[in-house]
Design goal:
heterodimer; A: Rossmann fold; 2 domains; four-stranded parallel beta sheet; 9 strands; 37% helix; B: alpha/beta; TIM Barrel; eight-stranded parallel beta sheet
Chain lengths: 316, 429
């Protein structure tokens, strides 16, 4: 295996591509830095000049408004210049290769690329092929990783639960296709969560998922029993009916999180969701809007966490 | 041209020879072994001290990319790569563009190949028209044009009835059918072994069942049709066990593996290296160990390169978008030797698996060094180390999982039909 492409020789963070292989010290550094930025986002003037003069390119090869916007806001609060490129609609359809696109944008003096792509490993490919001074942040690659989402989830858990060492956590839903789940699993195992469960029908679980350090449950009732944190995943529309699942109704009946089922978790358990939610498919509205839900704080923390990663990458 | 090769270690598994003996070549044939024939006056004497002299390698699967894919590689470049790899006979799958489904295309390919230095080329004809799996080809005509077997290359036949008819028709003439066991629905968009690494990297998985389900269909249809089948590129322990069983049941089945599968596993994919994107995928260590053992015990009949030169544009992409395949002609020998060394098998057994046994599967007289046989030879230094680099590969395809690594065993001379088609001196590797 090649040396860890995400780290500089001195062990500091160079690119953020995946939470797999990042030491706890770096994850904690990001969360601590994000703590500091949280106050910035609450000030009246929500801007610090840390990245003034830096050019950050949002390279979205896969359509997204929400995620792109959160990166954009984070960059602007750090005073960076942000360029948004929706590439699925331009160069790729003209036959330009991924690396050609990146080379062209590098020639425009980019300092950082934020990349979302439908293929696993796309951000790795770009990171391996950019000039030394350019930093790459993965904003989601295929089913592989969505590290900033994983980090903001860690920030949320730490904020509400104080740490990871005594927690029982369940991730519920479409693990197979979820880059969010993979990043959550990598982060939680690194940060020392003693009991991590995944809950899904067999059709939505990768084979050998146990190798990632999780316990597998197929019944929601077993999976969320006595947990401190329930992390729900989004179920894509196209997967609700077909060979993976028979119908959204059956999915909701057996794996949807309702107030009754949530009672099986610890009384002070928090409920998370990366958004956008399918109310009535994976989560009941009464849970999503209930007092145990921390879904909206997650979004707020997402900005602070992305600011933290950008400032750390730019500083290294 | 009369050539004497002296002082070499002659390895000829077919005739049971592993000894220092000289070899004499005239008019394209081997005319003497050990002792020179009367009145033999060599035009050229090759001193093979320290070298192994063995039959030229026979590769069951090498894509020459013509016609249709000249942007990846050309006949000239890949014929040269074959010679540089010690390969003197090869068969090429029909997955050209257009596919080898018409006698004229096959004749043209054979004619082009004959017009240039390099190995003898034995095309494998398409089993169905355009490889579409709908209409069977004119197999008898294709055979007359030079096809030695019929296959679908990497494209499985979806309609099982067409597969059965194709096997029946081939069996009418006794033509061997070469099939890759691949259930298209189970593979779908998969790119990596359905195991721990694919789970971690989020790569769409290819389950072992995609191989075993298809293989079970093939074996049952062999019983129904009487067809002779060569199963190409096995990758899993389960499939090997099934072939072993079919052989012990007396079915006319044989099989091969891609030489890369002797060494690599799913773990080699772990940093998204597109050069490790092959079909079938590298599987678990348990599968790899089963392959190595099955080659040693003879269940696997031959090792091939499954040479697939791919241009950089089609490889420098995210893993799942990269064109599958690895350049292999120049790695067949060193990777086979490495297996033999690690598995503690002799050089003779290693040579056998890439010469005599594939030649027998092709039904050609290559792969041996008897007096009167065509003078197709490979002379290699079994001790020499060399580095796999973009420059050291003659193939236009630089797509190797072994790029940058050092391998042991280097071809020094390749003699085809009595001509030295390739030579590399010691200092200028």
């Amino acid at each position: 295996m090649s040396p860890n492409i995400q780290l500089n020789e001195d062990g500091s963070l160079r690119h953020l591509l995946s939470l797999d292989g990042l030491p706890a010290r770096i994850l904690t550094q990001i969360l601590d830095t994000a703590d500091g930025f949280l106050s910035v986002t609450e000030q009246e003037v929500k801007k610090v000049p840390l990245l003034r003069g830096k050019a950050i390119f949002n390279l979205f090869f896969e359509p997204s408004t929400r995620t792109r916007t959160t990166f954009e806001i984070a960059a602007k609060r750090l005073s960076a210049d942000v360029v948004n490129l929706n590439i699925s609609a331009s160069s790729q359809s003209k036959g330009e290769t991924l690396l050609d696109t990146v080379a062209n944008l590098s020639a425009m003096h980019a300092d950082m690329f934020i990349v979302r792509h439908s293929s696993a490993g796309a951000a790795h490919l770009i990171a391996r092929n950019v000039a030394d001074h350019i930093r790459v942040m993965n904003a989601g690659d295929g089913r592989h990783a969505h590290p900033t989402q994983g980090l903001l989830d860690m920030f949320t858990i730490r904020h509400f639960k104080g740490g990871f060492h005594n927690l029982r956590i369940a991730i519920v839903g479409d693990i197979l296709h979820s880059r969010v789940a993979r990043s959550q699993i990598n982060a939680l195992t690194t940060l020392g969560c003693p009991e991590l469960r995944v809950v899904a029908p067999k059709t939505l679980l990768p084979h050998d998922v146990e190798g990632m350090g999780v316990h597998v449950h197929h019944r929601l009732e077993d999976g969320i029993k006595d947990v401190d944190v329930v992390m729900m995943l989004r179920l894509q529309n196209e997967r609700m009916q077909g060979a993976l699942l028979p119908s959204p109704q059956e999915y909701f009946k057996y794996w949807g999180l309702t107030p009754d089922k949530l009672k099986l978790a610890k009384p002070d358990a928090i409920v998370m969701h990366p958004g956008p939610m399918n109310r009535g498919v994976e989560i009941d509205s009464d849970v999503a809007d209930g007092k145990q839900s921390v879904i909206l704080p997650q979004v707020t923390y997402g900005i602070a966490v992305r600011m933290a990663v950008m400032s750390i990458l730019a500083g290294n | 041209m009369k050539i004497q090769i002296k002082n070499g270690r002659l390895i000829d598994p077919k005739n049971g020879i592993d000894a220092q003996q000289d070899i004499y070549i005239a008019a394209g044939d081997i005319v003497g072994i050990g002792n020179a024939p009367a009145d033999f006056h060599a035009n050229r004497v090759i001193d093979a001290t320290g070298l192994v002299v063995c039959p030229g390698l026979v590769d069951l699967s090498a894509r020459l990319r013509e016609p249709g894919f000249e942007y990846m590689a050309t006949l000239e470049s890949e014929m040269r790569a074959a010679a540089a790899g010690g390969v003197t006979s090869l068969s090429c799958p029909p997955d050209t563009d257009p596919p080898l489904d018409e006698p004229g295309l096959v004749e043209m390919l054979k004619f082009r190949a004959k017009s240039m230095p390099g190995p003898r080329v034995y095309p494998v004809g398409a089993l169905t028209w355009k490889l579409k799996g709908e209409r069977i080809t004119e197999m008898a005509e294709l055979h007359e044009a030079g096809c030695v077997a019929f296959s679908q290359a990497d494209t499985p036949i979806l309609d099982t009835l067409v597969l059965m008819r194709a096997m029946e028709y081939a069996a009418t003439f006794g033509f061997p059918v070469w099939l890759r066991p691949r259930d298209a629905h189970l593979v779908k968009d998969g790119v990596a072994h359905d195991g721990a690494v694919a789970a971690r990297l989020g790569l769409p998985p290819i389950p072992v069942a995609s191989e075993t389900v298809a293989l079970a269909t093939i074996v049952l249809l062999m019983k129904a049709t009487g067809a002779r089948v060569h199963v190409c590129r096995l990758s899993s322990a389960e499939a090997i066990a099934m072939v072993r069983q079919a052989k012990s049941d007396g079915l006319p089945i044989s099989c091969d593996i891609n030489v890369h599968h002797l060494h690599l596993t799913e773990l080699d994919v772990a940093d998204f290296n597109p050069n490790c994107h092959l079909y079938p995928p590298f599987r678990s260590q348990r599968d790899r160990d089963a392959i190595r053992a099955a080659v040693a015990d003879g269940t696997i009949d031959a090792i091939c390169s499954d040479h697939a030169p791919v241009d950089d544009d089609a490889k420098e992409l995210p893993f799942q978008e990269a064109e599958p395949g690895a350049t292999g002609l120049e790695l067949l020998l060193p990777l086979t030797l490495r297996w033999a060394k690690e598995q503690r098998c002799g050089l003779g057994q290693a040579v056998d698996l890439i010469t005599r046994r594939p030649a027998e599967l092709l039904g050609i007289e290559a792969g041996q060094l008897g007096v009167g046989a065509p003078a197709d030879l490979c002379l290699f230094d079994p001790e020499a180390w060399w580095q796999v680099t973009r420059k050291s590969l003659h193939s236009l395809g630089k797509n190797s999982p072994f790029l940058g690594m050092e391998l042991q065993g280097q071809v020094r001379y390749t003699i085809i039909d009595g001509h030295v088609d390739f030579e590399r001196n010691h200092n200028n590797a």
